[in-house]
Amino acid sequence: MCSIPSFANDQTSENNKFNLYYAFNSNTQFESFIDRGVSDQIESITFGWASLQANEDGQLELEYKNGDFRVPSGYEDVLLKAKENNIKIYLNIFL
Residue 49: which of 74, 25, 23, 29 has the closest Cα? Predict the structure, then answer.
């Protein structure tokens, strides 16, 4: 089990849970956590698959299909594994 550095928590505890940040093509790493049976130590996973942009009309638009912050192929498998293991799912929106 990984311990929390002292700067993050005054007392290391087995009850600590982690928020994972999923970058592109992190399927292998995430699946290895699940396969090793440590999903109970993962509180949530945050995906960086969107950005917020202002269009020419001054309206905000959520972009998730093109550019650097897009939903990658194979995303369904990761979402399904997170849901099956009761891991909270968040979407990080870049500016």
Answer: 23
11 or 77: which carries more pLDDT confidence? 77
Q: What is the pLDDT of residue 14?
A: 59
26 closest CA partner among 65, 92, 79, 67: 79
Burial class of residue 22 (count of CB atoms within 10 Å of its CB; 0-12, 13-18, 19+): buried
Find how far residue 37's CA is from the centre of its chain.
18
Query: Helix 27-35 to helix 75-84 angle, to the nearest 10 degrees?
Result: 20
Contact 81, 20 (CB under 8 A): no
- Provide the Cα torsion 44, 45, 48, 53; round to 10°: -30
In contact, 52 and 62? CB cutoff 8 Å: yes
